[in-house]
Amino acid sequence: MGRPVARSGAVVAVALFALAATLTANTEARVSTSGAGAQTPATGGRVIFRMCCGPDWIDPGQTYYSVGFMLSGAVNRPLYSYTPDHPLHPVPDLAEGDPQISADGKKVTVTLKTGIHFSPPVNREVTSRDVKYAIERAFTRHVPNGYVFIYFSDLVGAPDDFGPLTDIAGIETPDERTIVFRLERPTATTLAGALTLPITVPVPREYARPFDRERPSTYDSHVVFTGPYMIRNDADGNLVGLADDIEIVRNPNWDPAGDFRPAYVDEIRFRFSDVDFTTMARHTLQGSHRLCCDASDPDWVRKFGSSYQAQIGSAPGHGTRWVSLNTRVKPLTHINVRKALAAAMDRKGLRHARGGRLAGRLAQHFLSPGGPGFAESGGFDGFGHTRYLQHPGGDLALARRYMLRAGRHGVHVSRHGNYAGSRSLLMVGTDSEPGRTVAHLVKRGVEALGFDVHLKLVPPDEMYTKWCGVPSAKVAICPNVGWFADFFDPESLLEPTFSGHAIRRSGSNNYSVLDDADINRAMRQASTLLPGPARWRAWAGINRMVTKQVPGIPYLWDVNYAVESPDVLGVINPYFGSWDLSFTSLKP
């Protein structure tokens, strides 16, 4: 998930389309805005959000996709949130103030606001016990969360893997407004950053527990909410319309006096459609009361940008896309083979398949623009030692020199620098565009060095859950992977994807199966540092170490786009790279 930067000040402004040259030069620092910010937003009305697909989960304990985060931001209140005008620094949401970190870095204390109530049919006031239960349920096999073991495993008494509901001793609730997190290691900075994630959205145990006994939990269709909006439900709390469209309406128990969200509109309807993004964008741009879409497509930016500049918004994606190389599958176990593949790869062609310059800047490493550690990693230029990334169009002569080096260490290589062994490499990519084109381009680049490649194309979810995210599947190359910040700290980009400990977690995101003792040690130490220059330099150093190991071939730092109708005043929240439903309004 994750991702930021919007201009401070008038957050009611609509983001402005920028020309590619300007946009890609500045994606690390801004979300541009137009003169529409001078307009006063109207209160009330209904907006339709057109998109291809719905959220992965309504349940805040399970959602881990951008659309789920966007919806959660309107209907739920985690402990802390990123807002359009505070894109790099979270503000207290359910919490009353900043998290208090002990001097030894092993305790985080949060005080909750009073007067926040659950939506019907629960209705009662939120307490610290609801946050405790929300986190504990995410460790169960009935509510398998995608990141709980990444950021919360240092809690005293935390389970080692998904299992039954457990009382975690490291989450204390001394009173109804106080929650204390105690840690085995001094990793309070990491945990405090993760308190922005939906896992901290309160869940009432007395109501949710019967649903959580099912496997998987059926709370997903009975969620109660704490934000300004709620998904329409019936008298028994059953959410209405999830199979087709989702309609969010005002939460009658929400008190605007205790929330920073203006929540201008009365209703927002999500309409799912399998039509192409260009058609959805055209209907939105030429229609009324509409927003679009759940994914970016630079093609419609090219087609409509000059005519609808004030209706197209952009934001840095705060993530990196790469081609993962499995460091445990021969002959990719040899670093010079991985360097050869990186040198041979036409990374400009891969970016072109995703939209060219409008899609974003060519990536040179694994920390994305706009976040801490990026400048310390050499910024857009990257690290000088990565010769294999210095030729974005590919350099076969250099690639073959790397192959010849590998040949001197036991890899079967011809005298011309091509692979001469008998192993076939399994590559698994997505069967939908633009990923499918990217996969074929990667296959062509690998075959140029003499490798035999077996390409298997599958649906995106299956690609992760059955292949690339499963080390035992022994997929040599995954051409369509990437990672986006869960919160704005370099650890959230590098630890889930390149830590050896991540391999041993359920649902690994370490697609390259990289398990380097020096990197693991450096990550463990860096996770204990307080926010600031020393921490950013440490994680930039880890970024250098990872890039030097070539566990993947980075090729894109994304830019996200979104469109709106002429009568809508949309506001982009850079955290999830799309419209913030709680700040968007209609024009008066």
Break the fold down into its secondary structure elements and pairings.
Blueprint: H1 20-26, E1 46-51, H2 66-75, E2 80-83, E3 86-92, E4 100-101, E5 107-111, H3 128-137, H4 148-151, E6 171-175, E7 178-182, H5 188-194, H6 205-212, E8 229-231, E9 246-250, E10 267-272, H7 277-286, E11 290-292, H8 298-304, E12 312-325, H9 335-344, H10 347-353, E13 360-361, H11 396-407, E14 424-430, H12 435-447, E15 452-458, H13 460-468, E16 477-484, H14 491-498, H15 500-503, H16 517-526, H17 533-549, E17 552-564, E18 568-569, E19 572-573, E20 578-579, E21 585-586
Parallel strand pairs: 1-10, 1-11, 14-15
Antiparallel strand pairs: 2-3, 4-5, 5-7, 6-7, 8-9, 9-10, 11-17, 12-16, 12-17, 13-17, 18-21, 19-20
How would you characterize the overall build of this protein?
It is a single chain. The protein has 588 residues and is an alpha+beta fold. Among the domains are: 56-215, D-Maltodextrin-Binding Protein, domain 2, CATH 3.40.190.10; 322-556, Dipeptide-binding Protein, Domain 3 (Dipeptide-binding Protein, domain 3). The chain is 26% helix and 19% strand. It is built from 17 helices and 21 strands. The strands form six sheets. Strands 1, 8, 9, 10, 11, 12, 13, 16 and 17 form a nine-stranded mixed beta sheet that branches. Strands 4-5-7-6 form a four-stranded antiparallel beta sheet, with helices on one face. Helix 10 runs antiparallel to helix 12 and helix 16 (517-526) packs antiparallel against helix 17. The protein is globular and about 75 Å long.
CATH architecture of the domain at 322-556: Roll
Number of helices: 17
* CATH class placement of the domain at 322-556: Alpha Beta
Unreliable stretches = 1-36
CATH superfamily descriptor of the domain at 322-556: Dipeptide-binding Protein, Domain 3
Approximate strand percentage = 15-25%
